[in-house]
Write a structure and sequence with these properties.
InterPro entries: DNA/RNA_pol_sf. It is a single chain. The protein has 71 residues and is mainly α. The protein is 54% helix and 0% strand. The radius of gyration is 14 Å and the shape is globular.
Amino acid sequence: MADLSAFLDKAFENSSFEELADAPVDALAGISKSDAEALKQALGIKTIRQLAEHKVILIAQAIAGLATAKK
């Protein structure tokens, strides 16, 4: 597996991709428990998979990609 340790909380460094997808968003480095709670309250996001697949995130990525492509 690729070394993702710089992007993960230490407790999740040895997790498989399948486990990571269903891990809480605070398994990602830089997202605190309070950040995770805010995402849950605002958007209903609890897992990394839900974050990655959320329509607002996908729309933001599409807009940013189109803006970059237009340059």
